[in-house]
Design a protein that fits this description.
10 helices, 419 residues, T_SNARE_dom, single chain, seven-stranded antiparallel beta sheet, PH-domain like
């Protein structure tokens, strides 16, 4: 992720301690840092990492009202005249600061990551791919349940149409026909059995991902912390106490706009009344966007500031399958059957020998990679089988709908003759 992306910026004033005066400018937040730029000179007066912050507080005094203070190491920075309000800026800054402290991408983790081996990098890559494939399988499983519900509904419609057909036959039969009153009574006994099989998939569906978010409703200036939960059937917005604020079913979502890699808006349109719209900001949003893109591929829109994120995220994954498998099999093969004999190192210098050592992975890492690859292969086969099953279900649904349409037209003509 590009660390120079500007997540948010706010007009405000900064107290410059060297000249003992307030300077007008803009306070900016990036994924890893806070910056302040003066309006008149364009000079960058403040620039420090989020991980170096010790405290963020809302303070005031006799001379300074509605101020926000940030304690960075031993320096206290004062910001005032914050727009749209001090509470909005405080909630957003505190959210990203806390997530930065909890994130594994902190300063200490970054230093440790530089020393990670090739095997650990590959294990992390494959684990991420496995998680993505599992999320895809959950969505496909829910879609399969929806297809099953549609098929059950169509079967019930066909049964009702058979009953209607028998009723019409009775009405069309002459009064002296002896079996006219027995044509349609028997199938009615099976109708209560059909209503007993109601699917309760919503209560059983699992959570794909849940992330902390900063919530803005419609165009309100007030923001509040909460949570975004993604299900296979839709998404749910709740407050910090896990009380549901709003739930969007997949069919209810009209569009999702990705403003930046960290901010999205979800909207449901209505005729004759205001739209239901929520704007969500989160440090963990880059983890949720790929799932939203998979679930709402025709409804999601990436705005200009988010297009760089799409390119950076998709370009390595264009040939993700081949690159993962080639890298994994190549490294595993290097462990099991090293390509160069021990004597081949005589012509190498120390740097080449060290590089060759770094490219090798341990037996434990190789064993873990083999297990992940085995799971990936099983998930891929299950996903492929589910897709084939859904293709067959779609064909059956199309055939049933066409048959039902013909039957309805035929019965309409028969009803017109009777009337």
């Amino acid at each position: 992720m590009n660390e120079d992306i500007r997540i948010h910026s706010w007009p405000c004033s900064y107290y410059l301690d060297t000249s003992k005066q307030w300077v007008s400018g803009r306070l900016s937040l990036t994924p890893v840092a806070i910056k302040f730029t003066a309006d008149k000179t364009g000079e960058l007066l403040v620039n420090f990492h989020l991980s170096s912050i010790s405290e963020i507080k809302k303070e005031s005094s006799n001379l300074i009202f509605s101020s926000l203070t940030i304690l960075e190491k031993n320096t206290k920075h004062w910001f005032s005249s914050l727009q749209p309000s001090r509470n909005v800026v405080f909630n957003i800054l505190e959210h990203f600061w806390r997530e930065q402290l909890l994130s594994s991408e902190g300063a200490g983790a970054e230093a440790a990551a530089l020393q990670s081996t090739k095997g650990k990098e590959l294990t992390g890559l494959l684990t991420g791919s496995q998680k993505r494939l599992e999320d895809t399988a959950k969505v496909l499983h829910y879609q399969g349940e929806q297809f099953d519900n549609i098929m059950r509904g169509l079967n019930k419609i066909e049964g009702d149409m058979d009953v209607a057909d028998r009723l019409l036959t009775e009405l069309e039969s002459p009064s002296w026909w002896p079996f006219s009153n027995k044509l349609w009574k028997a199938p009615l006994e099976t109708k209560p059995k059909e209503t007993a099989t109601v699917s309760d998939s919503k209560n059983q569906e699992g959570i794909i991902i849940r992330i902390p978010v900063i919530i803005t409703h419609r165009t309100d200036s007030n923001v509040k912390p909460g949570k975004l939960t993604l299900f296979a059937s839709g998404l749910e917005i709740s407050d910090c106490n896990s009380q549901v604020i709003h739930r969007f079913e997949s069919k209810d979502v009209d569009d999702i706009r990705v403003h930046t890699p960290y901010e999205i808006s979800v909207r449901q349109r209505f005729i004759g009344k205001p739209d239901t719209s929520y704007r969500l900001l989160s440090a963990k949003m880059p983890e949720a966007i790929p799932i939203l893109e998979m679930q709402f591929s025709k409804k999601i829109q990436f705005l200009e500031d988010a297009l760089g994120f799409v390119g950076a995220r998709k370009s390595p994954q264009v040939d993700l399958g081949t690159s993962i498998w080639q890298a994994a099999t190549g490294l595993l093969g290097g462990v099991v059957q090293p390509s160069s004999p021990v004597g081949g190192r005589e012509g190498m210098d120390d740097d080449q020998v060290q590089l060759q050592k770094q490219e090798k992975i341990s037996q434990e890492e190789a064993k873990e990679l083999k297990q992940i690859l085995k799971k990936l292969k099983g998930l891929a086969l299950e996903t492929e089988a589910e897709l084939e099953r859904q293709d067959e279900a779609l064909d059956s649904i199309t055939t049933s709908v066409d048959r039902a349409t013909l039957n309805i037209d035929k019965q309409n003509r028969r009803i017109k003759k009777l009337t």
